[in-house]
């Protein structure tokens, strides 16, 4: 009996991984620093099996809490500029004096697999993403109050008072902008971490459910 020829099948369905799905979603999570957004983002990543966190590139100095290649890809200004020139970013922005950007290729590869891709980015980046991909789902995390936010920034003991004040000023502007720029589909107030995580999970699951119908 002649054997059928071995051919490479171009159908991606033949090359699926166990975590691949049919309903990819580009999720943008923003919020001022100190609002608990990283904790919420990482909890979402752990709780949704096909979720994948997009590791941004940045020129900001690495802190003791950061792991290179896990939290960020830490780049020099020259490396960052080179990647802009090569059009490798889906979006990029300057935040509090440092460059941050999302690399396009890994995001697109994961979306093609039907994954939930999480971008934890600032308001300027979210605006760029929303204009390039209007189907992105934007969630903005709010602090219970501005006073509370300032307290949380100080409690992290991560930066000098000068840096804290710079981040606090940026945060106030960010909140005002987020409420008016149309880049966000939902707002979550983080007055209680567990509750905020639950709210984020419910929102994301129902959005995917709605889109798969
Ligand atoms: P941090 O220095 O505290 O890690 O981040 C500062 C701000 O930059 C945060 O609001 C964070 O969400 C944002 N950020 C992190 N990665 C990116 C990115 O790839 N693009 C943009 N536009 N903002 C980012």
Textual characterization of the structure:
Strands 2-7-1-8-9 form a 5-stranded parallel beta sheet, with helices on both faces. Strand 5 (89-95) and strand 6 form a beta hairpin. It is globular, with a radius of gyration of 19 Å. The chain is α/β, with parallel strands linked by helices and 213 residues long. The protein has one domain: P-loop containing nucleotide triphosphate hydrolases (Rossmann fold), CATH 3.40.50. The chain has helices at residues 37-47, 77-85, 104-112, 123-132, 146-155, 161-178, 193-212; strands at 25-30, 51-53, 56-58, 72-74, 89-95, 98-103, 116-120, 137-142, 186-189. Helix 1 (37-47) packs across helix 7 and helix 5 (146-155) packs antiparallel against helix 6. The structure holds guanosine-5'-monophosphate. Guanosine-5'-monophosphate binds next to strand 5, strand 6 and helix 4.
